[in-house]
Write a structure and sequence with these properties.
This protein has 231 residues and is α/β, with parallel strands linked by helices. It is 42% helix and 23% strand. The protein has helices spanning 3-6, 20-30, 50-74, 86-89, 103-113, 132-139, 143-158, 184-195, 213-218; strands at 34-38, 44-49, 97-98, 117-122, 125-131, 166-171, 174-183, 202-211.
């Protein structure tokens, strides 16, 4: 399944000039752990997460102790009084994915990097967010959706097989194919391609065929004929 079919497009974002207080407020109200940071044209600049807040608080605590010592010994004003903005602390080394990518690629990236969500981009433009929950949803498709994809798209549109030749059943993603096809190759392709349908856990079949074209293909003589003694 393509990322564009799974991603969330109504994404809460924030600008780099916003204060950390504003970012924290938006995150708490929306119940999210991070916000994409975008410019006025929707270009993705970075992301601010709970981890960035923790790092900032830790740094501020250290600087606060330094500032108090400076005031005690020199009488100087607080050197870190300016409120920091989102752009000061956001993460800019981002892992992103395109909307045309497959959900399995997103799953591999999340597993490798340990992130829970990926910004979906078109060039530099933010188009949406894909999360682990979205990926799980792709594998938890209803049986009727699986059957529809195989019977309405795969069989007639991809393999050009008459739909009434095949019966498709699915229970908890376990697909059973039965029927009689023109060739053995058609049966093999149907089984293999059905395994790749999103949400399919397994495929078994009770398919038969009118012609075993795989045997015929094996018996086609190579250029110059079969070597002596092989037939």
């Amino acid at each position: 399944m393509r990322i564009r079919d799974l991603m969330t497009t109504d994404v809460l974002t924030i600008g780099p000039e916003a204060s950390l207080k504003e970012a924290a407020r938006r995150m708490l109200e929306a119940g999210v752990s991070g916000l994409p940071v975008t410019d006025g044209d929707g270009g993705l600049l970075g992301i601010i997460t709970e981890a960035d807040f923790l790092a900032t608080e830790s740094e501020r605590g250290s600087k606060g102790r330094t500032a108090r010592l400076l005031r005690l010994f020199t009488g100087e004003a607080e050197p870190f009084a300016r409120e920091r903005s989102v752009g000061d602390v956001m993460t800019t080394d981002l892992v992103t994915i395109g909307s045309d990518a497959d959900h399995s690629e997103a799953a591999r990236i999340m597993e490798k990097t340990g992130v829970k969500r990926l910004p979906v981009v078109d060039g530099s433009k933010l188009r949406g967010i894909i999360s682990r929950a979205d990926i799980v949803r792709a594998f938890a498709r209803a049986d009727h959706d699986i059957i529809d994809e195989i019977t309405v798209k795969l069989i007639p549109e991809t393999l050009w097989i008459e739909p009434d030749r095949v019966q498709v059943r699915s229970e908890d993603g376990n697909v059973k194919l039965s029927g009689r096809l023109h060739t053995r190759t058609e049966a093999q392709l149907l089984v293999e391609l059905s395994k790749r349908v999103d949400g399919v856990a397994s495929v078994t079949d009770d398919l038969s065929w009118d012609q075993d074209d795989t045997r015929q293909n094996r018996l086609v003589p190579p250029l110059g004929g079969f070597p002596p003694g092989t037939m």
